[in-house]
Design brief:
Elements (H helix, E strand, L loop, with lengths): L7 H60 L14 E13 L2 E13 L11 H84 L1
Antiparallel strand pairs: 1-2
Helix pairs in contact: 1-2
């Protein structure tokens, strides 16, 4: 703990600091609660999307297996005929934290021969597109959580600093200064009384 000056000016300075800490702390606590609630909400949304994605994937795999043509929706290099060209996001803001917000994606479809591919290819590609969109949105939600979690760590550290260090430390400084100034004032009164008594004694002698 830094050494403090035991003066009236320092007392005012410490009182102002304590007032500021006590005013700022509820804002930090509110921000912490908001961040925690937002993270829980985003994680719940991501879980729901992941479940939907798994359901679509299971249907997709079972559906293709029925026809026995797993390679129907794959290109010559083994990848999907449908590829993500770009992901569209906009900038959002939660509790002062900038986050990406998923808006969609653009896809590139590899040319394929309708005479070679099965009749259900269009339907299969539509399902694949739906799965890829879910994957991309989940990825953006994960990034939101990562950014908010970083801010939550910083905010929690500040809350702890104010609650456990700054406010108790400043209150203790104020107590010490008040005791010192009180003792000084008492000593001054005593010295004044002694001096007055000596004057009276001298005058009466």
């Amino acid at each position: 703990m830094a050494k403090i000056k035991l003066t009236k000016n320092e007392l005012k300075k410490q009182k102002d600091a304590l007032k500021m800490f006590r005013r700022y702390l509820p804002t930090l606590q509110l921000k912490k609660q908001q961040l925690q609630a937002e993270i829980r909400g985003i994680e719940a949304r991501a879980r729901a999307l992941a479940e939907e994605r798994d359901r679509l994937d299971a249907e997709f795999v079972a559906w293709i297996a029925v026809f026995g043509e797993t390679s129907a929706v794959r290109s010559a290099d083994g990848g999907w005929l449908l590829k993500v060209r770009s992901v569209r996001t906009r900038s959002g803001n939660i509790a002062g934290v900038e986050i990406p917000v998923f808006e969609g994606a653009d896809f590139a479809l590899e040319d394929y021969d309708l005479f070679v591919r099965p009749l259900w290819i269009d339907k299969a590609l539509e399902r694949l597109r739906a799965m890829l969109l879910l994957d991309l949105e989940i990825k953006v939600l994960d990034e939101q959580v990562a950014r908010l979690a970083r801010e939550l760590r910083i905010t929690t550290q500040r809350v702890n600093l104010f609650e456990k260090v700054k406010i108790p430390e400043t209150a203790e400084n104020i107590r010490k200064i008040r005791i010192y100034l009180g003792d000084q004032q008492t000593a001054q009164v005593v010295r004044g009384k002694i001096a007055k008594r000596k004057v009276v004694e001298r005058e009466s002698a």
